[in-house]
Write a structure and sequence with these properties.
Length: 152
Amino acid sequence: MNNKPLIYLAFIILVLGGGLVIGANNVPGDWYQSLAKPSFNPPNWVFAPVWSILYVIIGVVGARTWLSPLRRSIAMRLWFAQLVFNFAWSPAFFGLQDLMSAMIIILGLLVSVAGFILVSWRQDRTAALLFLPYLAWVAFATALNAAILALN
């Protein structure tokens, strides 16, 4: 029996489902609306579709890594680390309303995503390339978090 489709499905459900649950429990409310934001802050409606697409990609990359010889490698550890940082950011930013802790968390996320790309590049170029849009979005989100921190 080939379990590959089930593993891909499990990773996508874990990541997308986890992201949606965390997002639903840490919604931007009046506090977020009251914050000063930089001119490059996108409209709120952009975040849900972008993150949903990225969560599917993150799940696919996690499954690829799990199914490869990289399962016991630093790449898999970095994949899990980025997921922990990713899932911790919204509760810190929106739940605790702690801009500085959120900044530290998103820097950890940025480093773990970049690290995953670097260590995966030679053994699974597809996984590394799939993480490039994620890296770009997290870099943008880091700049946005830093700007909101500076303005407030």
